[in-house]
Amino acid sequence: MEIINHINYTDQNDHIYCCLRNRVVKLNQDQQEQFCQSCKMFAGTAGGRGVECAWEDVRNVSNPHVVIDPAKEFISNQRRVVFQENWTKRASYCG
After folding, report:
1. pTM score, two decimals?
2. 8 A C-beta contact, residue 66 and residue 9
3. For residue 94, pLDDT beyond 90
4. DSSP state, 35?
5. Cα–Cα dist 86/22, whole Å
6. In terms of Cα–Cα distance, which of 35, 27, 33, 24 is closest to 10?
7. In total, how many domains does the chain have?
8. Domain range spanning residue 15?
9. Which of 7, 18, 40, 52 is deepest in the core (most CB within 10 A)?
């Protein structure tokens, strides 16, 4: 799977979607020091307008993937993809 660069711009309240915490958070000094600095997905500061994170995304998104609505991004990331081959294998155990 391809590593996608997610460019998360802050909204009008300085919120972003944080994949590490799987929630919308305020991008302040505490967030940056406690989470961003040690996060393996951290890839930059989006030109001082947010945060960039690089991770394998199972969704069909562009690369880079630009996020301007953190709440919408959070909701989109709650959907899970179930691959067909897993269901086929499980079905064979039930027979």
Report:
1. 0.80
2. yes
3. no
4. I
5. 25
6. 27
7. 1
8. 3-94
9. 18
